[in-house]
Specification:
The complex is a heterodimer of chains A (440) and B (122).
Chain A (H helix, E strand, L loop, with lengths): L6 H11 L4 H8 L3 H8 L7 H11 L3 H5 L4 H12 L11 H7 L1 H28 L3 H25 L6 H39 L4 H11 L15 H6 L8 H20 L5 H7 L4 H8 L3 H9 L11 E6 L4 E5 L17 H7 L5 E7 L6 E10 L11 E9 L11 E4 L25
Parallel strand pairs in A: 3-6
Antiparallel strand pairs in A: 1-2, 1-5, 3-4, 4-5
Helix pairs in contact in A: 2-3, 6-8, 7-8, 8-9, 9-10, 11-13, 15-16
Chain B lengths: L3 E5 L3 H13 L3 E5 L5 H8 L3 E5 L7 H10 L8 E6 L3 H9 L4 E5 L3 H13 L1
Parallel strand pairs in B: 1-2, 1-3, 3-4, 4-5
Classes of the chains: A alpha+beta (440), B alpha/beta (122).
Chain lengths: 440, 122
C-alpha cells in the first residue's frame, strides 16, 4: 500500500507549524489555495515538481512528506483491523483514516498495543489463576479498567453526537484508565517476579523445575562432563549444592548427569556438532553414524552449545499420563509450566504409537508464528515383563526452522500451547474453552 | 419517563459510561457503589431492573443477589450480573443464585443495551 496517502496531512501539519497561511503557500508554489486545500486533505495525490517545491518551501526533505513516521501507526491499525474474526474493517481505508483522523488513529493504535500486552499478561497468568486468589483479584481489576476503556472509547467512536463537556470527561476518564492499566500491569509483573523468587527461596518449586533452572543457567550444556576426562558426578554436584538444594533434586541431577556422561562418551563434542551440520540435523542419520538410539541422539542434540547466531534446540519429555517430565524451551515454542500441553504435539502422537519415530513440521498458534521441525518417539522405560505394566516415556526434539532445511512441500501441522490460552476455535483436540477464543 | 435502572458497580468510569449509554437510550439511571447498602438502595429506588457487579466493596454481588431472590418483593426483579471473563466459577454462581442474565467483562456497550432491553421486554 503506498504511503503517499498521508502526504497531505504532513504538508498541513508542517505549514501550521511554520504559521504559514494556506493561500500564501499556494501562491509561492504556483497553485490555487483550493487545490492546496484538496492536497492537504489527502484528496489529491502529488509528486514530481510540485512535491519538490512544497518541500522546499516547508524546509523539509520530500521523503519526510511522502513517507513520514506513520509506518508503525499503520502497522498497529492493521493489527487492530485483523484482530477480530467477526468484524470486517475497511482495510483499504486505513491510510485515509490515519490521515484524516490522526488523533483517533493514534488512540486506536495505542489501545491495540495495550490489548496485545494485556493478552500476553493474561496468558501468563491463566495457568495460575485457580490457585492464586491475589492474582484473580488483580486480574479483575485489570478487566474492570479494560471494560471502562472499551465502553468509553466505543461511545467516543460512535456515530451519535456527544456533548463537548461529556467528550472532555470521557477523554479524561480514558487517560486515567490508561494510567491505571499501566500501573496494574506493572504491579502484576512485579508480583509474579517476587513470587517466583519467593518460590526459589522457600523451596516451593518442584524438584523438576529446580533441575531445569540449574540446567537453563548452563544452557543445558555441562562442559565439565565433556572430553576424555570428565568430572565425576559427585564432584560436580558438590560444587553446585547451593543451586541444587534438596535431596530430591540432587538425585534427579545425578540421574541426568549419568545419562549426559553416557551421551557425551558415545557422541563426543569434538565430532558431534560437525556431524549434526553434515546430517542436516537428521537424528536418524546421527543415530546410525554414532551407533546410538534416537532418544540418546535427541538428548545429545539438545545438549549442544547454542551458536551465537542461531536459535537453541529444544527438548521435551512426558510420561504415559502426558505430564511433562523434562522441558528445554525454545524461543517461539511455548511449553506450559502448569497443566497439560496441546494434545496435537507429536510428543503425544508418539505415545499412541510406541517405538514408531515421528517427524512433523509444526507451527504454534500465537502472535509470532514460527515453524519448527519436530522428531518424536516413545520408548519403554525398562525391560518388558509379565508381572508389571510396561511404562513408556515419550521424547520430542524441537528444531527451530532457521537451523534446518525444510522442504517446501512439507505439510505443517498447526498446534497450540495448551487449550486455555489457544485461540484456535475449530480444533478437533480442544478439551476446554479458551479464554482467548473470542478475542480478548 | 423511561424505565428505571439501578447500576450497582464501584468502578467510577464504568458507571459513567454505562449511565451515559443507558440515559441516551431513554432510561432513568441510578447508581450505587457500596455492596453493604445495596439492598437498601434497591428498596429506595424501586428499579425496573438491576445491573449488579460481582466484586463490590464490603459485600459480594452474589450475596446481594441471593438476598434479592429471597425477598418476595424483589424475587422476580430482573438482575443483569457483570462477571469477569475467565472466571467460570462466577458464571456458575450467578446462574445458581438466580441471575436473569450475565455479561462478562470486558463487555461491549451493545451487549449491555440489548441485555437490558430484552430483560425488560420479557
Amino acid at each position: 500500500m503506498p504511503k503517499s496517502g498521508l502526504t497531505g496531512t504532513r504538508i498541513r501539519e508542517r505549514r501550521l507549524q511554520l504559521s504559514l497561511r494556506q493561500s500564501a503557500l499556494a501562491r509561492t508554489v504556483g497553485i490555487s489555495a483550493t487545490y492546496l486545500n484538496l492536497i492537504e486533505h489527502n484528496k489529491r495525490r502529488i509528486g514530481g515538481k510540485l512535491l519538490l517545491d512544497l518541500s522546499r518551501e516547508l524546509g523539509v526533505d520530500p521523503t519526510t512528506l511522502t513517507e513520514g513516521a506513520e509506518a508503525e501507526l499503520l502497522e498497529a491499525l492493521r493489527d487492530a483491523a485483523t484482530g477480530h474474526r467477526n468484524i470486517t474493517a475497511e482495510m483499504e481505508h486505513i491510510e485515509d483514516m490515519a490521515g484524516r483522523y490522526p488523533g483517533w488513529a493514534q488512540l486506536l493504535a495505542t489501545q491495540q498495543r495495550q490489548i496485545v500486552g494485556l493478552e500476553q499478561t493474561t496468558a501468563a497468568l491463566t495457568d495460575r489463576l485457580t490457585h492464586d486468589p491475589h492474582l484473580a483479584s488483580s486480574l479483575h481489576e485489570v478487566l474492570s479498567v479494560v471494560t471502562a476503556i472499551r465502553s468509553t472509547s466505543a461511545i467516543l467512536a460512535g456515530t451519535g453526537d456527544v456533548d463537548p463537556e461529556w467528550q472532555a470527561r470521557f477523554h479524561r476518564n480514558m487517560y486515567e484508565d490508561s494510567q491505571r492499566l499501566a500501573q496494574s500491569s506493572q504491579a502484576l509483573v512485579e508480583y509474579l517476579d517476587s513470587t517466583s523468587q519467593d518460590e526459589m527461596d522457600t523451596g516451593l518449586t518442584l524438584p523438576q523445575e529446580e533441575l531445569e533452572t540449574w540446567l537453563s543457567e548452563r544452557d543445558f550444556h555441562i562442559q565439565e562432563l565433556e572430553g576424555p576426562d570428565p568430572l565425576p558426578a559427585s564432584v560436580l554436584l558438590q560444587g553446585e549444592q547451593g543451586l541444587l538444594g534438596s535431596k530430591a533434586v540432587q538425585n534427579m541431577a545425578l540421574d541426568y548427569i549419568d545419562l549426559y556422561a553416557q551421551d557425551a562418551n558415545a557422541m563426543p563434542l569434538s565430532d558431534f556438532p560437525g556431524a549434526m551440520a553434515e546430517a542436516n540435523f537428521d537424528p536418524a542419520v546421527l543415530a546410525s553414524r554414532f551407533n546410538c538410539d534416537l532418544v540418546q541422539v535427541f538428548r545429545r542434540m539438545a545438549a549442544m552449545p547454542t551458536p551465537k547466531e542461531g536459535a537453541r534446540i529444544g527438548l521435551v519429555q512426558c510420561d504415559g499420563s502426558g505430564t511433562l517430565t523434562f522441558r528445554k524451551s525454545v524461543d517461539g515454542f511455548v511449553l506450559p509450566r502448569f497443566g497439560a500441553a496441546c494434545p496435537l504435539w507429536p510428543l503425544y502422537q508418539a505415545l499412541a504409537r510406541p517405538m514408531s519415530p515421528i517427524r512433523q513440521l509444526v507451527e504454534q498458534s500465537g502472535r509470532s508464528v514460527s515453524k519448527f521441525l519436530t522428531y518424536a518417539i516413545s520408548q519403554p522405560t525398562g525391560p518388558a515383563g509379565f508381572d508389571m505394566p510396561q511404562v513408556f516415556r515419550s521424547t520430542m526434539l524441537i528444531l527451530p526452522g532457521d537451523r534446518v532445511e525444510i522442504a517446501d512441500e512439507a505439510t505443517c501441522l498447526p498446534i497450540g500451547t495448551s487449550c486455555r490460552i489457544c485461540p484456535r476455535s475449530d480444533c478437533i483436540a480442544r478439551r476446554e474453552p479458551s479464554i482467548l477464543q473470542d478475542g480478548f | 419517563m423511561g424505565k428505571r435502572v439501578l447500576l450497582i458497580e464501584d468502578e467510577p468510569n464504568i458507571i459513567e459510561a454505562i449511565r451515559f449509554i443507558l440515559s441516551r437510550d431513554g432510561y432513568t439511571v441510578d447508581t450505587h457503589a457500596d455492596g453493604a447498602t445495596a439492598l437498601e438502595a434497591v428498596q429506595a429506588k424501586a428499579p425496573d431492573i438491576v445491573i449488579l457487579d460481582v466484586m463490590l466493596p464490603n459485600r459480594s454481588g452474589f450475596d446481594i443477589l441471593r438476598d434479592l431472590r429471597a425477598d418476595q418483593m424483589t424475587a422476580a426483579l430482573p438482575v443483569l450480573m457483570l462477571t469477569a471473563r475467565g472466571q467460570k466459577k462466577d458464571r456458575e454462581m450467578a446462574e445458581r443464585y438466580g441471575a436473569s442474565r450475565f455479561v462478562t467483562k470486558p463487555f461491549s456497550n451493545s451487549e449491555v443495551l440489548s441485555s437490558v432491553a430484552e430483560l425488560l421486554a420479557s
